[in-house]
Amino acid sequence: xxxxxxxxxxxxxxxxxxxxxxxxxxxxxxxxxxxxxxxxxxxxxxxxxxxxxxxxxxxxxxxxxxxxxxxxxxxxxxxxxxxxxxxxxxxxxxxxxxxxxxxxxxxxxxxxxxxxxxxxxxxxxxxxxxxxxxxxxxxxxxxxxxxxxxxxxxxxxxxxxxxxxxxxxxxxxxxxxxxxxxxxxxxxxxxxxxxxxxxxxxxxxxxxxxxxxxxxxxxxxxxxxxxxxxxxxxxxxxxxxxxxxxxxxxxxxxxxxxxxxxxxxxxxxxxxxxxxxxxxxxxxxxxxxxxxxxxxxxxxxxxxxxxxx
Length: 309
What we know:
By secondary structure, the protein is mainly alpha-helical.
């Protein structure tokens, strides 16, 4: 491959897109991991930085692998869409075999990261691979590909906790996972409205095409479930005031997104989609500060007991 200059350029572009890709979606894949890791941290402690770094590496690798798989599945579709027609596989600059070899390298590196975790987490992480592979196919079969994406992108909400605790506390992990799925349905439905004209022409499906003018009502419903799930997470993990302030702020953020969204303006859809990285960090900050507050409350109670004695 490297002996051909044009293929060398294509390979560099492919590497940039599929291996070291740190874009908005990478953050959206990574943030549920950080929520879970932070929730599983000991009261009064910051989240484990080495675990955050390990999951950050894994998010970059799996996001890149997802891009490779998506581009392999969508080679013919990408050729028909202006913003994707120049992707290396669609343009014929990188063959499917070369992409497959590259994908093998990406997944091998991701496996090396996964093997750093406990056995429970290794099995749990490996269980998500099937969803990663089939997701690009779903837009051909169902109007709910965003739901499958939600299942994939929020797997870290389960994996982060298990990596810290060697198992999942389902009273916390499950509502967190469901909340993340609802979040993905919100931001990726907004994202899909950018492409609905091309999607109709090439015959692929999305929640944007299914919801159409009722999109905002659906987004309100997803937001309600998300916020309910986050409240359950807080109650079951004994969270404190900063966490609930963050959840309320997340609700206000979502309300602003949905109220001001113009589903027929691709630029506005892109802008609203990009706001969700900020939303994810708002929740993360609430979890971290809420966890630190636990130790503060515990210290205050201990001092009161001593004074009473």
